[in-house]
Amino acid sequence: MNNIKFPKKLGQKELENFFKKKGLTEIIRLSKSPEMKVNEMIISNPYKPELEDLYRLYQFIILNKRTTILEFGSGWSSLIFSLALNELKNKYNNQIKKLRRNNPFELFILENERKFLNITKNRIKKFYNKKKLSYKIHYNFSEIKMTTYNGKFATEYKSLPLCSPDFIYLDGP
Fold it and tell me: By Cβ atoms counted within 10 A, which residue in 115, 146, 162, 163 is the most buried?
């Protein structure tokens, strides 16, 4: 069995250089914007990007060669996941055909807020149109409901996309 690989930590300059090379200078600029109050973030604005977290997510996907991602919630991480999957597809597309995989190099986003799903969709579309790259992303909206699990309160999505991910990410407050 393979061990899980973790990315090394980078300093601020190295992080900024990484995102510049990916054509994501906007992320660097937005990461330096002033902090918002918690209520403002949740109600009206997406979270600002955190370079260290986004770099770690990108590298985690690359180092561990993840091929299908299911993301609960959406945001800057959605763009980063799509870039990592795109890079892996360019590198391993021929080899993956030998595996029994239904959705290789695809990202499934499940969001319960239409506003944030649209922000993510437009952000990704804008980036990829600029770069003239292709991508395979499934945007899914689902309402959530409060329920109990083992006697504790929990939230449950009413519908889930049909996929077999090898990486699941919970993105949300």
Answer: 163
Among the listed residues 65, 50, 76, 55, the one whose alpha carbon sits nearest the alpha carbon of residue 10: 55
| Structure token digits, residue 58 | 């990108």
Phi, psi (5° rounding) for residue 32? Answer: -95, 0
Considering only CA atoms, which of 17, 27, 101 is closest in space to residue 67? 101
Measured between alpha carbons, how far is 84 from 78 in angstroms, rounded to an integer?
10
Q: Among residues 29, 28, 80, which one has the least CA distance to residue 55?
A: 80
- pLDDT tens across 8-36, in order? 999 999 999 999 999 999 999 999 988 76
Q: Which two tokens stand for residue 41?
A: 């973030």
- How far apart CA 156 and CA 149 sit, in angstroms, is 10
Query: Confidence class of residue 100 from pLDDT cuts 50, 70 and 90?
Result: confident
Q: Per the confidence metrics, is the pTM higher than 0.85?
A: yes
Q: Which residue type occupies 150?
A: N
Is the pLDDT at 166 greater than 70, yes or no?
Answer: yes
**What single-letter amino acid sits at 14?**
E
Residue linked to tokens 């959605």: 78
